[in-house]
Amino acid sequence: MAEDMLWAESFTALSERIRTGVLSPVQLTELMLDRIAAHDGALHAYVCVSADMALSSARQAEIEIRSGGWRGPLHGVPIAVKDVFYTTAIRTGLGSSIYDDWQPPYDSTATARLAAAGVVMLGKLTATEGVYADHHPSIAPPLNPFGANHWTGTSSSGSGVAVTAGLAYGTLGTDTGGSIRLPSACCGLVGIKPTWGRVSRHGVFPLAESLDHIGPMARSAADAAALLGAIAGVDPADPTAAPVPVPDYLASIGDGIADLAVGIDWRFIRSRATDEVCATIEHVLSTITRLGARIVDVEFPGTDDILRGWAVVCAVEAAIAHRETYPSRKAEFGPRLAALLERGNGFSGIELAEVLSGRREFTGRMAHLFSDVDLLVVPGLPVAGPTLDHMASLGEDPEAILAIGPFTAPFDICGYPTITVPCGTSTMGIPIGFQFVAKPFDEALLCRAAHAYQGVTDWHLRRPALSPHQEQRHA
Question: With a threshold of 0.85, does the pTM exceed it?
Answer without folding.
Answer: yes
